[in-house]
Amino acid sequence: MPNTAASRKASLVPLRETGEEDARSQRARAERMAVAPLGGGLYEVESQSNETYFVDLPGGRCTCPDHMFRGVRCKHVRRVAIEINEGRVPPPGEKAAECTSCGTTVFVDENADGVHLCEHCDLPTGTPVVDRESGDLLVVVEVTDRRADEVDVPDRDCTVAEYPNNVDYPDDDPVVELLYPLPNDLGPGEIQPRHLRRYSFPLSRLERREQRDDEQTALTDFPATTQEE
Ligand SMILES: [Zn+2]
Ligand SMILES: [Zn+2]
Asked: Which of 23, 65, 83, 214 could form a disulfide with 88 if both were Cys (CB 3.0 to 4.6 A apart)?
């Protein structure tokens, strides 16, 4: 698994208020260990004494003598659990991946392919965003898992990446589908096809509305627009 994040070999800062009194818990935290997720709930632990053990976290098992012969919840199993709780390694069922947009490490479903977006870059459905080119306010329908150079612009002989206003954005940007917000003063009978048309923009062309310093019109006040992308 090329994208798997492993923790650096280190001891962890002791927690004063965990009530973890017993010696195994203290060693699990204080000793220098490195944890590498192998997938399927398995983790490889390099111990302070440079031994390598394998931990099956869902099963609570470890290949070390302490667990094999004494049957205890050893310091390696505890250490894996601690590192998951602290976000240093992914939990069972998840893997580390790079955010498609900014490269930050994110934990995603073990079987997920395609676009992964970190909390900062993700644009959930309904998010108001500003088009960097026009300053227009739009609303996110969805972030697709298709690249800008894979999606054709309807009625034009080019891809989203090739569209004139988009050439300065990365070709491999995920395509975001958007709508212009409906104008406030529009009655139900006045809704026209252009009000419901979806637009496809490269992700980097958009920024969250709250990231703008200048004053933006409130979503509900936004006037009708006929602007094409
Ligand atoms: Zn162990
Ligand atoms: Zn990101």
From this structure: 83
As given in the structure block, the two tokens for residue 35 are 């944890």
What is the number of the ligand closest to the CA of 100? Answer: 2
The pair of structure tokens assigned to 177 is 């589908």
* Ligand number, closest to the Cα atom of 63: 1
Do 16 and 102 fall within a single domain? yes
117: its two tokens: 């977006």
Residues 105 and 135 in one domain: no
How far is residue 105's CA from residue 90's CA, in Å, rounded to a whole number?
10
Measured in angstroms, how far is the CA atom of residue 49 from the centroid of ligand 1?
12
Task: Kindly compute the dihedral angle of the four CA atoms of residues 27, 31, 33, 39, in this order, to the nearest 10 degrees.
Answer: 20
Q: How many residues does the chain have?
A: 229
Please give the distance, rounded to the nearest whole angstrom, from the Cα atom of residue 13 to the centre of ligand 2.
28
Which one of the ligands is nearest to 24 CA?
1
Residue 160 CA, distance from chain mean position: 23
Q: For residue range 86-116, what is the model confidence (pLDDT) as tens digits?
A: 999 999 999 999 998 899 999 999 998 888 9
Show Cβ contacts of residue 192 under 8 Å, excluding neighbours closer than 6 positions: none
Structural domain count, the chain: 2
